[in-house]
Amino acid sequence: MRRKLAAGNWKMNGLAAALDELKAMSEANGGETEVLICPPATLVAQAASVAGKIAIGGQDCHAKTSGAHTGDVSADMLKDAGASYVILGHSERRTDHGETDEDVRAKTRAAWDAGLSAVVCVGESLSQREASNTLDIIAGQLAGSLPDGATGHNLVVAYEPIWAIGTGKVPTTDQIGEVHDFMRAKLEKRFGEGVGRSVRLLYGGSVKPGNADEIFAVSNVDGALVGGASLKAADFVPIIEALGAS
Ligand code: PGA
């Protein structure tokens, strides 16, 4: 049985006062469902010290361990600050910073070398979906972004259709199921059945308390990567509970 994972991506949101929300989430969290919050890098160390049973992650890391890379953060630094996960290849990184599948693969390797689990994001644009290219895009991103050596512990894959992120638009449950079943089959083929079955697959894009139940009922959905609705305990706790009840 895969342990379900409710992951929150705070993106570029959150000053120290936001840690009160994390504390409220931590107090409400019974621990049956795994919960992860990825705050901005500036808050990782403080977040880790108040998170209780909630895991803390970064939102990106450099592929190198150290060196002349002004402004970047290495996987070792995240680990040292108390992180156990890092989100990699989020569509906002791919778009805003031109990250390629190859970049994401190198970063994933760096995360693993540092002892972090990687949450690798894939997802199609609206024009790609309208051209019926979704599965080809996902196949290409999985093949290119994932290094050899994945395990159920070091890898989580998040399916995040770009057109659903922050828009309030959500794919139908059939569309989510089609992609998640497809990703499961691809992972089993590439990494073997045992590993392929143990990697958790998250759905991300406009997950809210009001739609969480139906999304978590979809086959091969092992949790969610949540942006906006992970900022406040009042929104995120019901999503964690919906996942626990699914
Ligand atoms: P959203 O973001 O929940 O605000 O749509 C999801 C994400 O980008 O991870």
Q: Helix proportion of residues, in percent?
A: 40-55%
Q: Mind summarizing the main beta sheet?
A: 8 strands, parallel, barrel
- What is the top-level CATH class? Alpha Beta
Low-confidence stretches: none
Strand content: 15-25%
What Rg is obtained from the alpha carbons, in whole angstroms? 17 Å
CATH H-tier superfamily:
Aldolase class I
Q: Which sequence of SSEs, written as H and E, runs from N to C?
A: EHEHEHEHHEHHEHHEHEH
Oligomer: single chain
CATH architecture: Alpha-Beta Barrel
The spatial strand order of the largest sheet comes to: 1-2-3-4-5-6-7-8
- Structural shape: globular
What structural class do you assign from the helix and strand content? alpha/beta
In this entry the ligands are: 2-phosphoglycolic acid
Can you give the mean pLDDT?
Answer: 97
Any idea how many domains? 1
In angstroms, what separates the terminal alpha carbons?
Answer: 13 Å
Describe it:
The chain is an alpha/beta fold. Helices cover 43% and strands 15% of the residues. It has 11 helices and 8 strands. An 8-stranded parallel beta barrel has the order 1-2-3-4-5-6-7-8, surrounded by 5 helices. Helix 10 packs parallel to helix 11. The two termini are 13 Å apart. The mean pLDDT is 97. It binds 2-phosphoglycolic acid (PGA). 2-phosphoglycolic acid binds next to strand 8. 2-phosphoglycolic acid (PGA) binds next to strand 8.
